[in-house]
TrEMBL record:
Swiss-Prot/TrEMBL keywords: FAD, Flavoprotein, Monooxygenase, Oxidoreductase
Protein name, per record: 4-hydroxybenzoate 3-monooxygenase
Keyword Cell wall biogenesis/degradation part of the UniProt annotation: no
Keyword presence, Nucleus: no
EC number: 1.14.13.2
Single annotated GO MF: 4-hydroxybenzoate 3-monooxygenase activity
Organism for this UniProt entry: Thermobispora bispora (strain ATCC 19993 / DSM 43833 / CBS 139.67 / JCM 10125 / KCTC 9307 / NBRC 14880 / R51)
Length: 391
């Protein structure tokens, strides 16, 4: 039987950053992570940090390697109708940029700091239930080293992702909103330097494609594919040919090919839980909300949630007031719904639905044309992409 102030379920980016912020302010916490360290550190996911998210990592001492190895990006490229257009972030947002630094690296940096500091971070510790939610001391039941154990907490924070148990534990007290998209992404990693300096978002008559990167020597590329597609249907040559066709423009540009080291199909979903708290149980990150990755918002929302939540716990710890904790759900839901709208907008503007009519395609092209010819429309995209303030 263990006790702590804040019991954190899940050691992904949200749980690890929350623990870092709390420990630095002297607030006791324990992180339970169901997977082993190697698995968590290798799990391929997001790669774009908004400026505010990068600042939070710096402020908590986890930004040193990011600043050395991450790539600062000042814009993105939009491709449509075989033409290429650049959206320049700093000039449209008063100087804001994004950082290309993989989620795997954020997670490695935070885990290393926790192990150096002696944070109770238990790998292969699977939370199975939360009891006492309506009492003053909720209890997390978990299995670790083959034994059933309990962690008695003053507060529980579910950072256990979309398939975690915390949201389920407060199911009766929350409402969920969901939209499932009629297409998926096939994502690959390839050992080849990126063929571009900045991300390329391509609308084409064959569907959407995205060229991203995980550093100077590794490319990350995505293709829109029908729901239900399997990686077996996509041998390497077919992937490169399709990427070539979707990125094609009038003029010189070449997509460099290289060995593909990873392939996965990702379904696309929007999902929001309201409220993000029930009594002493809080939800943060993917446990509370999901966005399709087109707007690069999932990781940033997760880091933003726990930055706001940590500040509320620190305020409670130093002043005795629960005012900020009580405001957590409303504060974050305003940002979450903004990010949901932006991610939906980017997704539905750039992808072709299976039932899409030529009329709808012309509307998409009209919208894209507006973004690249109107400073106001471009600024709206740039402000959302680089991230809005936390509060
Ligand atoms: C396949 C995939 C690809 C993605 N690609 C992109 C992308 O390209 N761009 C982008 O912006 N976003 C992307 N995202 C979204 C982004 O990665 C997430 O928003 C981000 O990981 C959220 O962090 P989190 O800490 O809230 O949740 P997670 O990263 O899901 O972490 C949750 C943690 O909880 C642990 N856990 C779960 N259940 C239990 C339990 N019962 N007990 C203990 N531990 C538990 C899990 O093992 C995991 O480590 C992707 C997501 C997925 C799933």
């Amino acid at each position: 039987m263990m006790r702590t102030t804040v019991g954190i379920v899940g050691g992904g980016p949200a749980g690890l950053l929350l623990a870092r912020l709390l420990r630095r302010s002297g607030i006791d916490c324990v992180v339970l992570e169901s997977r082993d360290r190697a698995y968590v550190e290798q799990r391929q996911r997001a790669g774009i940090l908004e400026q505010g998210a990068a600042d939070i990592l710096r402020e908590c001492g986890a930004g040193e390697r990011m600043d050395r190895e991450g790539l600062v990006h000042d814009g993105i490229e939009l491709r449509f109708a075989r033409r290429s257009h650049r959206i320049d972030f700093p000039s449209l947002t008063g100087g804001r940029r994004v950082m290309v630094y993989a989620q795997t690296e954020v997670v490695k940096d935070l885990i290393r700091l926790h192990l150096e500091d002696g944070t109770p971070l238990l790998f292969e510790a699977t939370a199975t239930a939360i009891t006492g939610i309506d009492a003053d001391r909720p209890v997390i039941h978990f299995v670790h080293e083959g034994r059933e154990k309990t962690l008695t907490c003053e507060y529980v924070v579910g950072c256990d992702g979309f398939h975690g148990i915390t949201r389920e534990a407060i199911r009766g007290a929350i409402t969920t909103y969901e939209h499932v998209y009629p297409y998926s992404w096939l994502g690959i990693l390839a050992d080849v330097p990126p063929s571009c300096d900045e991300l390329i978002y391509a609308h084409s008559e064959r569907g959407f494609a995205l060229h991203s990167m995980r550093g100077r020597t590794v490319s990350r590329l995505y293709l829109q594919v029908p729901n239900g597609s399997g990686v077996d249907e996509w041998p390497d040559d077919r992937i490169w040919d399709e990427l070539d066709a979707r990125f094609a423009i009038d003029g010189d540009w070449k997509l460099e090919r290289g060995p593909i080291t990873s392939k996965a199909v990702l379904p696309m979903r929007s999902f929001v839980t309201e409220p993000m708290r029930h009594r002493r149980v809080f939800l943060a990150g993917d446990a509370a909300h999901i966005v399709p990755p087109t707007g690069a918002k999932g990781l940033n929302l997760a880091l933003g949630d726990v930055a706001v939540l940590a500040r509320a716990f620190i305020y409670l710890h130093t002043t005795g007031s629960s005012e900020l904790l009580d405001a957590y759900s409303d504060t974050r839901l305003r940002r979450v719904w903004r990010a949901e709208h932006f991610s939906y907008f980017m997704t539905t503007t750039l992808h072709l639905g299976p039932e899409q009519t030529p009329f709808q395609t012309r509307l998409q092209l009209a919208q894209l044309e507006r973004i690249v010819t109107s400073r106001a429309a471009a600024a709206e995209l740039a402000e959302n992409y680089t991230g809005l303030p936390l509060y």
